[in-house]
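Thought: the user wants the 3D structure for the chain below. I'll pass the sequence to the structure tool as-is, report back what it returns, then summarize two notable features.
Action: structure_tool
Action Input:
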Amino acid sequence: MKSINRKDFIIAGVVEKIHGTKGGLRLSFDQKIKIKEWVFFEFHQKPVPFFVESISGNDVDLIVQVKGISTPKEAQRFVGKTVLVPSSKTKRKTRTTDLSIIDYLLIDENIGELGRVEDVEELPQQLIIRTTFKGKELLIPAVDEFIIEINEKKKIIHLNLPEGILEL
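Observation:
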């Protein structure tokens, strides 16, 4: 039996809210997604599969009813959860780092500790690492020129950011 590995998935969307009185979930995506039998939600940085009982809506906004959730109270714990899709099922170009670096510590060789990776967004040109530094949102392009090393064992990303990037 093959185990489910987080690195084999990409972030596709989010559970926006509950829909209806039977525990339906409204999913929102940043790209066209086809969900058929299974939908994966991220719990504790792991993909957890749920069998789809019914689905409606379009490719970007879906209403999904999954097996085991039949009340709004049960569905509430899914609101805000990340929806994952197997990376083999998408045409979207991704780097494996966009999946596995959430919560990694960011350390710049000149500034020091910047914070933890809160999110990774894919823009058409590149990946963007989102963190909070000194109470402000900081967006860092995930480009080879800025990343010195990614230590997966210690969950640390060593950076060499150009001067002035923190003022942007």
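Final Answer: Structure generated. The longest helix spans residues 72-76. Residues 6-89 form a domain with the Elongation Factor Tu (Ef-tu); domain 3 fold (CATH 2.40.30.60).
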